[in-house]
Amino acid sequence: MSAQNASSSLVLQAKGLSHRFPGGVAAVNGVDLEIREGEVVGLVGESGSGKTTLGKLLLHIIPPDTGRVAFEGQDLAELSPRERRRTRSRMQMIYQTAAASLNPGLTVGQHLEETVRLHRPEDAHRADALVDETLTAFRLNGKRALHPSQLSGGEQRRVVVARSLLPRPSLLVADEPTAGLDASVKADVIDLLRNARGGRTAFLFISHELDVVRYVADRVLVMYRGRIVECMPAAALDPRDTEVDHHPYTERLLSAAFKATRRVESPMIRPTEDLFKAGCSYRAACHRTEPDDPSWSRCSQHTPDLIPLRAGHRVSCHVVAPSPTEAS
Ligand SMILES: Nc1ncnc2c1ncn2[C@@H]1O[C@H](COP(=O)(O)OP(=O)(O)OP(=O)(O)O)[C@@H](O)[C@H]1O
Ligand code: SF4
Ligand SMILES: [Mg+2]
């Protein structure tokens, strides 16, 4: 989707991010992540795996319990309130509940005018023209005076996307930006996102739709119970390519999404002790190991690291990607 390459500058660098909600298990558990200028990083995983929480930790909408986030080289935890406000303009989020993030009392025009005032004060003198340009670019002409309740779902989503791109962010966390949209509106929203800042805006693109992620992203992360279990070039998320090894959980996601071309038989879910104490958190459902297998003791005692399988592709699994010491 983007012109990003390995020499592009780092927009975001996160190390060891973890967060536990009160009374719950760790929603995000030890995540490292780097995103480069213009790069589109897809994030997939089942419901409750921690995708939204990770997106919010990256922007410090939720402060992490442990770990650090550097945005354009600056540690977010060390910014003054004034610097934080300025930085916020360059880091935007499209919330999963996009329509609910619109204010029912404001018109479409007022939403966009407010965004210019807050995030582009240097352009306040031409806010009116800028809003008109934005309405045209997002095919919302004639909607300026309408309130959110007077818009279709697709139009509401376009307003949310327009509002998030108007500050010309360096990084946009887009949480399910195309969920529930029909095919033509979905294609529209994807197009608007991919043209953001001439391809220079970096994205964390969160979605359940593997085909959309494969099309949109440069690189895909797979999240399971708060951890990144696989990181691969988007092209590797191909259901027809049975030569490419994946984490057993990714296999299951691919099998569920593309039933006609892949089939993974899953064992009955096995009872387990607290999965976050030790061992691989996927072992209760894993089809690549059994309690009688030699690999089982490793799977149940040691959390696997993300190990390179090939260029740009890392997997956290003792069987699929044994660490050099296991393999020898
Ligand atoms: N405000 C909260 N208070 C307590 N627990 C929360 C809160 N928000 C999320 N969680 C829990 O944290 C875990 C991760 O939630 P999160 O919303 O990040 O998952 P997700 O991958 O985005 O799911 P979905 O695909 O359904 O959007 C879940 O177990 C969820 O119940
Ligand atoms: S480490 Fe073991 S339990 Fe975990 S995914 Fe790999 S084979 Fe399955
Ligand atoms: Mg979510």
What is the name of the CATH architecture of the largest domain?
Answer: 3-Layer(aba) Sandwich
Count of DSSP H/I helices: 10
Rg, Cα atoms, Å:
21 Å
Q: Percent range for helical residues?
A: 25-40%
> Which ligands appear in the coordinates?
adenosine-5'-triphosphate, iron/sulfur cluster, magnesium ion
Which fold does the CATH topology of the largest domain refer to?
Answer: Rossmann fold
Shape: globular
Q: Would you tell me the structural class of the helices and strands?
A: alpha/beta
What's the count of strands?
A: 12
Order of helices and strands: EEEHEEHEHHHEHEHEEHHEEH
Largest sheet: 8 strands, mixed
Q: Oligomeric state of the chains? A: single chain
Description:
The chain is of the alpha/beta class and 328 residues long. The protein has 2 domains: 10-224, P-loop containing nucleotide triphosphate hydrolases (Rossmann fold, 3-Layer(aba) Sandwich), CATH 3.40.50; 241-327, no CATH class. It has 10 helices and 12 strands. It has helices spanning 51-58, 81-90, 108-119, 127-137, 153-165, 183-194, 210-216, 248-257, 296-301, 324-327; strands spanning 10-20, 26-36, 40-44, 66-71, 74-75, 91-94, 171-175, 202-206, 219-224, 227-233, 307-310, 313-315. The strands form 2 sheets. It has an 8-stranded mixed β-sheet, sandwiched between helices. It has a 4-stranded antiparallel β-sheet with strand order 2-1-4-5. Strand 1 and strand 2 (26-36) form a beta hairpin. The longest helix has 13 residues, at 153-165. Bound molecules: adenosine-5'-triphosphate (ATP), iron/sulfur cluster (SF4) and magnesium ion. Magnesium ion (MG) is lined by residues 51-52, 96, 175.
